[in-house]
Design a protein that fits this description.
The chain is mainly alpha-helical. 66% of the residues lie in helices and 5% in strands. The protein has five helices and two strands. The chain has a two-stranded antiparallel ribbon.
Length: 155
């Protein structure tokens, strides 16, 4: 397996760019009425931002559990306990992708997905405002593959 060494700052920035791209796509999918795709892309936005902040701090972020731990650590680091709740909301969107429990026929469920996506927007704002750690643990971030957002590799 070939590993790519990427500057920590560049890696974190790319995760954030991907998170922004996914959130825009969540909105577009919601507008088209595809709640499952909107849900997954909103979750993806949160996971990319968590990966960015975890990368800056040298924390693991290679699994769903590691992302949950990162959310807990960020809540402790910032003193913002709402981070845990917002992470849970985003997880429910992730589950909706697999279960499709919030189908377009149910107005109540449609509203719930909209409200959850709005909360993801709040979560992204919170994460954008978390400052870079005073001491970065390392200068490079190791990846197994290059970053990509779509087949063309563009935003």
């Amino acid at each position: 397996m070939v590993y790519i060494h990427v500057d920590v700052n560049e890696a974190a920035l790319e995760y954030k760019r991907t998170g922004d791209w996914m959130l825009r796509n969540a909105e577009a999918e919601f507008d088209k009425g595809d709640l499952a795709q909107a849900s997954e892309k909103a979750w993806g936005s949160v996971s990319q931002y968590l990966k960015a902040l975890a990368t800056e701090r040298g924390w693991a972020h290679d699994s769903h559990g590691a992302l949950a731990v990162s959310a807990d650590k960020l809540a402790k680091e910032t003193g913002n306990s709402e981070i845990r709740m917002l992470f849970s909301i985003s997880e429910s969107l992730h589950a909706n992708f697999y279960e499709a429990s919030r189908d377009a026929e149910s107005v109540r469920q449609h509203i719930a997905v909209r409200q959850h996506i709005d909360r993801v927007h709040e979560f992204i704002v919170v994460m954008r405002n978390i400052p870079y750690p005073e001491q970065a643990p390392r200068k490079t971030h190791i990846r197994e593959r290059p970053f990509f957002r779509n087949k063309a590799g563009r935003l």
